Amino acid sequence: MNHDHEMAVLGQRARRAAREVARAPGRVRDAALLAMADALEAATNDLLVANARDLEAADNRGVTGALRDRLKLDAARVAAMAAGLREVAAQPDPVGEVLGERVRPNGLRVAQMRIPLGVIGIVYEARPNVTADAAALCIKSGNVVFLRGGSEAQHSNAAILAVLRDAAASAGLPQDALMALPSTDRQWILAMLHADKYLDLVIPRGGEALIRFVTENARVPVIQHYKGVCHVFVDRAADPEKALAICYNAKVQRPGVCNAMETLLVHEEIAADFLPPMAARFADAGVELRGCEATRAIIDAQPATEDDYHAEYLDLVLAIRVVPDLDAAMDHIATYGSNHTESIVSENYSTVQRFLEEVPSSVVIANASTRFADGGQLGLGAEIGISTSRLHAYGPMGAVDLTTRKYVLRGTGQTRN
After folding, report:
1. What per-residue confidence (pLDDT) applies to 126?
2. Can you give the pLDDT at residue 386?
3. Which residues in the chain come in under a pLDDT of 70?
4. Under CATH, to which class is 230-372 assigned?
5. Which site from 78, 84, 319, 358 is most exposed, i.e. has the minimal number of CB atoms within 10 Å?
6. With a threshold of 0.90, does the pTM exceed it?
7. SS3 labels along the chain
């Protein structure tokens, strides 16, 4: 099979659909999203049957832990996908928004207008909910999306996409607003990554190996998010109970996701008081601790290596370092972080302000869990991905981040001298 030729055929279909979706009124796109939400809920049993096939295959391959958790659907997760679609539908329409209009000395009116990017490719692993999230945000922003989920979720993804395509068409959008590659074969990924004539952006969501593969092989622009090495710094002015709750939630609530805490930094002045009760809570949850020498002088932990501080565990494993002050904490984050999410726990206003202003990660948080670095939690309804590269978008990306801006000029006959 000539994958590039077949991709060109699909790309031409996507371009035709993109023109239709871009000119569809916002009310039509919102109606499609609401129809998609209703259809997902109505098809819950069918979706769970398809997901069970993927889970059975995963179990036969010995898949456990975070990867299996990301793969699993249940009624609550299907309902959450539908809720995300409705939340996106309720947001203001970003398409056509006029920004920064001004009048030049010659009377020419100059403004910028938000327009869709066009055709967006999404390459993702394991998480079937990404199918619905990507569809929601791309339709809301007037784009066509190419979906390429991983083979481990192929039955779930296909079932979700079939439901969404039919629902979108029932509301007046072309079915090709939502497209998928014909196969999970890696050659199809390469064909999509080379299709810069038809695609405007590719967003990979998955492990570091997938993202590097996409970035290294793409001719299409790529939004990157290599990994989430997220930190919590417990300052000497932290409220102890608040810090215990935040750190526990950041690590344990769902360890297999990119906004879970991977490294805990503790101010040396409170380490002897804070670490023992924190370690006890982590022990009850089955968290393996790896710490620096100062940490291991206080609690029982495995020695931490340089690799541990670079690691995205996505599991119940935590690296700990005791640091002398805020500057040392920020230096550690600058050295080992991935520009994803960092949190500080402190009641000292000036310390918090320095942390929020000086740490350049895409999400910085004061006195709350890193788990809030999520499109749904930030009011985006869903997220298409989390950008840790600073061009175009940074952090969780919603519908607005899937638009670009064109200049619109209105004159009354002006000519240039």
Report:
1. 78
2. 87
3. none
4. alpha beta
5. 358
6. no
7. CCHHHHHHHHHHHHHHHHHHHHHCCHHHHHHHHHHHHHHHHHCHHHHHHHHHHHHHHHHHCCCCHHHHHHHCCCHHHHHHHHHHHHHHHCCCCCCCCEEEEEECCCCCEEEEEEEECCEEEEEECCCCHHHHHHHHHHHHCCCEEEEECCHHHHHHHHHHHHHHHHHHHHCCCCHHHEEECCCCCHHHHHHHHCCCCCCCEEEEECCHHHHHHHHHHCCCCECCCCCCCEEEEECCCCCHHHHHHHHHHHHHCCCCCCCCEEEEEEEHHHHHHHHHHHHHHHHHCCCEEEECHHHHCCCCCEECCHHHHHCCCCCCEEEEEEECCHHHHHHHHHHHCCCCEEEEECCCHHHHHHHHHHCCCCEEEECCCHHHCCCCCCCCCCCCEEECCCCCCCEEECHHHHEEEEEEEECCCCCCC
